[in-house]
Specification:
A: mainly alpha, two-stranded antiparallel sheet, 15 helices, B: mainly alpha, Ferritin, Ferritin-like_SF (chain A), Ferritin-like domain-containing protein (chain A)
Chain lengths: 418, 210
């Protein structure tokens, strides 16, 4: 039998408020932590924030005392959960190191979701975003090398995620109309697809918020420029992924789905967490969220006449896990790197007509200026003689994106010989 | 008991539109839609759209009637909302049966049905502003919502009757007539809700002057 939050007993809501000491958790050691533990912390921070902000929006659309007060209580506990989770990040982890963690999440979370996504269009959308975040890690990795010195990248991402060019950031800047996607239909969607869509929206939303706020805290113009440029892509990604959600889902339904997704992810991460102390936090928060699902379900029943069992699956789907996706990403790179989008459809860039709005937008932002995402690589080559990469599976699958390193040159020669 | 919230697990099917994605295994083919009205000389896609939308309106109305029965503090009013909920559930059964007889999935949710759900659920959002009114007025709002939903249900009943009347003699025409006949039996209760609303408004206006 699988795990069904509706059949479990959680911690009563009135017992969930914690004191400052309980919330001010000891951070993990950035040198010792498993990269995917850091990734899980980042994901759950984003999930909690998304739930909190959605609840605030809901609260702004009602003046019903029982609804507003129940939301306020649930939200306060979610806020405390967010603090307990995000305060696991250590103060000696620099903004750029955290940024690498965010991009590792964006890569391995997105790839993991895409690999298990049942719907072909949603999977395509995830793959499309994946290659862009994959490139962001490469750009930031080169920046941290320049600003904080070598070896920082490997310390953060380990050998779990490769670092090399994806779809070049410079070509990711599309006209806003071309980032809007189609959405699933609440009456036919697979429950896992909904959870995937909610999870990726939360992850990208927090990344967007993070970059737009920390970007100007840097002094070097190159760093400020790169954060600015990639923050704009994160806006595109939020536009893309939020489009996947069915706008027909009501406030009460969304409230339930948020808490259900929190249950799903705490439960998923609890089963694979390697740090026993942090696993206990996932377990505690799961017990809290089980109660939140129950309370949100009561609201739904009272105000919409819908029993939560009618819209939730009988058990949680297969868990979302962090694992290596190197081969998968290389395959996606090989087949999809040249894609862009026209409205909600994905098309090869070469198929765009000369008067496509894509080119006008590109000219507006890239024309006649140093593009930070390109300049950071040029600067790295200038300073170190080559760009920074971290590859474990051989040269880049796209020949033109291979570096000038001896390894890549040998690989290219080998391919030509064959 | 009728399924009042259609999901993939309860047999949801659909038809993609400009902004919606339907999993291939749950998509109703254009051919199946076209075929369902052919024998009666009707536009099958449109017919399926209409029947699906009427069914969806009944589902949402049943849910909201249940919610109103839960929220009201007046026993007589609770009974009215419970009767409405049961009536709407019966309508769902009738209309799902009609879709099935038309050769379509019982829980086909057409683009028009999505819109019907949105319209009805929007009406049902009214109690979210309950903090702006007193408890007495909230009771009236619950009745107001029921009356608005009844108005659409009456219109749906008339529309289905007109469609059934226009169908060329065929098995489809027979099924449409049967379903239409079943829906007409609800007219008295639907009109009673509307009359109740008018009476209450009148009573308020004629009551003690403030």
């Amino acid at each position: 039998m699988g795990f069904n939050p509706l059949a479990e007993k959680g911690i009563p809501l009135e017992l969930q408020i914690r004191n400052w000491s309980e919330l001010n958790v000891a951070p993990f050691d950035k040198r010792e932590v498993h990269p995917y533990t850091r990734a899980r912390v980042i994901v759950m921070n984003g999930i909690e924030i998304e739930s909190i902000l959605s609840s605030h929006q809901f609260a702004r659309h009602t003046d019903s005392w029982p609804v507003k007060t129940t939301l306020a209580l649930l939200r306060r506990v979610d806020q405390q959960q967010q603090k307990a989770v995000n305060w696991l990040l250590p103060g000696d982890q620099t903004v750029l190191e955290t940024t690498l963690g965010y991009e590792q999440v964006a890569i391995d979370l997105t790839a993991g979701l895409a690999r298990t996504e049942p719907d072909p269009y949603l999977r395509q959308t995830l793959d499309f975003g994946l290659l862009e975040d994959f490139d962001h890690l490469y750009r930031y990795a080169n920046l941290i090398d320049l600003i904080e010195g070598p070896k920082r990248v490997h310390e953060i991402v380990g050998n779990l995620t490769e670092v090399m060019p994806g779809r070049p950031t410079i070509v990711e800047h599309r006209h806003p109309f071309d980032d809007v996607r189609r959405h699933y239909d609440r009456h036919t969607v697979d429950p896992l697809s909904r959870l995937h869509a909610m999870t990726i929206v939360a992850a990208e939303q927090q990344t967007m918020n993070f970059y737009m706020n920390v970007g100007p805290t840097y002094v070097p113009p190159l760093a400020r420029g790169l954060y600015l440029e990639i923050a704009e892509i994160e806006e595109q990604h939020v536009t893309q992924y939020e489009s996947l959600l069915d706008p027909l889902e009501s406030w009460f339904q969304r409230e339930l789905f948020h808490h259900y997704n929190e249950c799903y992810l705490y439960w998923s991460f609890m089963t694979e967490e390697v740090d026993p102390r942090i696993r206990k936090i996932w377990e505690l928060h799961l017990a809290m969220e089980i109660e939140h699902v129950r309370v949100a379900g009561e609201l739904l029943l009272r105000h919409e006449g819908v029993e939560p069992q009618a819209i939730l699956p009988p058990e949680l789907p297969q868990p979302t896990r962090f694992h290596e996706n190197k081969k998968y990403i290389r395959e996606v790179l090989k087949h999809q790197i040249d894609l862009t989008s026209v409205g909600p459809d994905f098309v090869p860039m070469g198929a765009l007509p000369a008067d496509a709005r894509f080119f006008a937008y590109q000219e507006a932002v890239n024309g006649g200026v140093k593009v930070p995402s390109e300049y950071v690589i040029a600067r790295h080559v200038e300073v170190f003689g080559d760009d920074f990469r971290l590859t474990t599976e051989g040269p880049h699958p796209i020949e033109v994106l291979r570096s000038g390193s001896l390894e890549d040159l040998d690989a290219a020669q080998h391919e030509r010989d064959e | 008991m009728s399924i009042l919230f259609v999901t993939k697990a309860s047999g949801g099917h659909g038809r993609p539109a400009s902004m919606t994605v339907i999993p291939p295994s749950q998509e109703v083919s254009p051919a199946a839609l076209a075929a369902c009205g052919a024998a009666a000389g009707l536009n099958g896609v449109a017919l399926a759209d209409v029947v699906s939308a009427i069914a969806m309106h009944a589902r949402v109305s049943a849910r909201l009637a249940r919610a109103a029965a839960e929220q009201t503090s007046q026993p007589a009013r609770r009974q009215l909302h419970e009767h409405l909920a049961q009536m709407y559930e019966d309508r769902v059964t009738t209309l799902e049966g009609l879709l099935h007889k038309l050769g379509l999935p019982r829980r086909y949710v057409s683009p028009a049905a999505r819109m019907a759900a949105f319209v009805a659920e929007s009406v049902g959002q009214a109690p979210l502003l309950s903090g702006s009114i007193d408890a007495g007025l909230l009771e009236f709002v619950l009745l107001d919502v029921a009356s608005t939903l009844a108005e659409r249900s009456l219109a749906d009943t008339r529309a289905l009757a007109a469609i059934a009347g226009s169908a060329q003699p065929s098995s489809v025409a027979v099924q449409l007539a049967k379903a239409s006949h079943a829906l007409k039996t609800d007219v008295a209760l639907l009109e009673k809700v509307q009359a109740r609303r008018s009476q209450e408004l009148l009573a308020v206006v004629q009551g003690p002057k403030g």
